[in-house]
Here is the input.
Amino acid sequence: MKNLLLIRNMLCVSMFFCLWGIAVNAQNIPLVYSVENSGVSYPAPSLPPANESPSVVLLPNPFEWSDGHGVINTLEDWPCRRNEIKLEIEKYEIGFRPARPTSITAALTRDSVYTIQEPNWLNIDQSDPKWRLNANNFIPVEHKDHFLLVTIVENGKTLTLSSTINIPDGAGPFPAVIGVSGATGSLPASLFANCIQINYNPSQVGIDGKPNTGAFYDLYGIQGGHYAAWSWGASRIIDGLELIQSQINIDLAHIAITGCSRYGKLALFGGAFDERIALTIAQEPGGGGAAAWRVSEAIGKVEKIDNTDYSWFLPSMKDNFAGKTDRLPHDHHELIAMIAPRAVLILGNATIEWLADPSGYVSAMAAREVWKKFGVEDRIGFDFMGDHNHCNAPASQVDAADKFIKRFLYGETTDTNILTSPFQDVNYQSWIKDWRITPASFVGNN
Here is the structure.
């Protein structure tokens, strides 16, 4: 066993320097990566059958190796550990998520130009119920719709993703945002005015509400949850952007993903599973998103393992872990932590009980320990304030998103130390009190 552990650690160190290509010091904690999964070639852990997994009542330690033999000590350990978390989530929760296909092509088509009136969110008083009746609250926004066509061939079958893509005027290079079910998700388009905006329609991959149904399942002939299929589709969009980079002058080092509600969950899975995404903004992701299954089990009428949508997740997750979340080898603070050391902003709505935002708060604070170990805790933020409509970000959340976008997409200097919630009395530390965390051995100031 000791020899196997030594081999694992040596491989982690050597492959870290090969993939990241940097010397570790205080100034270069990466903001993004050029590959989908920097841990893809690391040794896979031996994961137990669900009925043999040990009981862990509190939140599992994201720093602890899957085999229980110690915790990570250095930055170069993280890609290995992150890959272990990925494999746990696939095995126990969403199913297998294939890597980039060998046969994939992309094309850009050019179509219409049109102008529509959109809310000027930065100047709107949303406490006024009649704000939509005031024409001064709207501004004309020109859209230049092109289409990104990504074609994948696997097993003799073809899947084509068609996404509208809006390209700003100017020379670029332009950052980009992948909006799920909307060019900028449910966030104001004005926040991303200087970005290439890609409208990703996940129903082209898997049909919501229908398990194992859609083009992804036809392509691979496998069964799984839509969060494996849908996040896979988001990664294929990025593949397509790479293939047409010269045509649209995109800045591939500054890509964001955002969505709300079920698509807020998708934004989290997309950002967690693809390290080419520099900024993840998950809006009201609720249970199965930012909220930790264990914590949600204890707080009331919220989305839990026993009542979530099982077109999204493996049915075996309910069979194995409903009513016994302590047997789940991971939890969703680790899904969030997979994004580290890249940037993530979680937007909630504490008024809506179903979203389990107290659980989301505990989960986000627990995940933040990973960014703290990197010394870059200002790359994870949240705003869980309520009293607004579902998927309608209030002014404080628009401001938080604006700051994260300016810093992590546009490279501006803004303060992203944003931890806003009504949960000051929630003791998140009681959920992580058993963690073994080694002293930080690397600190970043990016």
About this structure: The two ends are 38 Å apart (CA to CA). Residues 42 and 160 are 31 Å apart (CA to CA).
